[in-house]
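ESCALATION

Customer reports they have been waiting on this structure for their group meeting. Please prioritize. Original submission:
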Amino acid sequence: MNQKQENLIVALDIGSAWTRVLAADLYEDSLRYRGHGMVRSAGMRKGLIAELNPAIKAVKAALEQAEQSARANLHICMAGVGGPHVLGFNNSGELKLGNRMREITEEDMRAAIHYASMFERPPDRAILHLLRRQYILDGQPGVFDPLGMVGAHMRLELHVATCSGSAWQSTVTCANKAGLEVSEAVLESIAAAECALTADERELGICLLDIGAHSTDIIVFFEGAVVLTASVPIGGAHFTNDLAKVLEIPTSLAEELKREVGNAVVTDVPQSSEIEINNPDPRRLPVRTIAEILEARARELFKYVRDTLREGGIENQLGAGCVLTGGGSLLPGMLDVASSQLRMSARTALPVRLPNMPADLVHPGFSAIVGMVLYAHRTRKERSLDKPSFRAKFRAAFAASF
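Update from on-call: job pushed to the front of the queue and completed.
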C-alpha cells in the first residue's frame, strides 16, 4: 500500500445502523471513487455512541475494508454529524459604517462576521457550521459579497448549526482509537444536500429530509442559503420496531417483512394480498395489516417535519418542495405520505455516481457520505483560490453555504 496519499479524501459516517468509510481521490482535478468499507454499527443507541469499544471495533472493521479496497493506508478523515442532538438557529450582527456612506473594506467584513458570531450557547454545544444567509446593506437584502460596495449600515445574517459537544467528542475519540485522525466535522444533511439538490431548488426553496435509522435530519434552503437545520427522533428503525411489537414477531423478521412487502399507503396494497410467516407460529397475515402499521408511523414522521417547518416560519416558502434521501426513504409510499402531509411535491434523491464507484453505492443510504467527499472537494478548491487574500479566507469561512 502507498504510504503517501496526499490527494485522498476520506469520509467517516458512524450511523445507527451502518458504519461506513469512503475514500475518493483527485485525478486531473476531478473526484473519483477509490474504495469503501461498510459494516453493521455497534455500541449505538438512539443515534449516539453509547458503548465506545464496540463502536471502535466497527470503525476499525470498516476502515480495514476501505484500505483494502482503496489499496492505500487511510489516516485522516472528515466525520459526519447527524441525529437528534443537532440543532440550528439564525443569528445576525450589525455594523454602523459611519454617518456618511463609504466603501466597505475587508476590515468591515471581518467585524460583521465577528458581531454575527457573538452569541451565548450552553457549554455542551459545539458549533459545526456558520452558514452565511445574506448581507443587508442600507436596508437592501440579498447581498452576498459587499466588499467594495458603498453604504452606511450593514447587517450579516447567519445560520448556526450546532451539535452536542459530548456526542461529537465521542465520535472523535472513536475514530482516533480506530486509527483515524479527524480533520473536520460536517453536518450530514449539508453533505447529503451537496449531491442531492440543484442550485435552482436551493433558490426556490427546498426541504431535504435525510431519513436514517433512528432520526430524520432536516435542512431547508431558501434563496440559495440555509435557513433551517433540525432533526426529528423518528427513523427507519421505528417502522421496524412498530411491526415487531404489534405483530409480536422478532425484529429481524419485522425488518424482512418491511423490505419485502412494506408500504406506507394502505390503499396501494390489494385487499386480498396475504403473506405467510412462521415465527413464532405459522400464520397468514394480510399485507394491509403491515401497511396500516407503517402508514401510521409515516404520518407521524411527516407531522413532526411539518410542525418543524411551521415553527421555523418557512412552511409556505418551499417552491421546489421536498426531497427524501437516506435508507429510510426507500419504503414504498413514503413520497405519497410526504406529499400529502407536507402539501408539496416530493421526490427521492440518489447520490451522484463518482467515476469508478460501484453501482450498489448509488443508494439513498450513501447520500451523506458521498456528499461529504463532494463537499470536501468543493471547499478545498475554494480555499486554494487566491489563497493569501481575504476574499479567499472569507469564502472558506462560509464554505458550507451554497
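Sent to customer with the following note: The first strand starts at residue 8 and ends at 14.
Escalation resolved.
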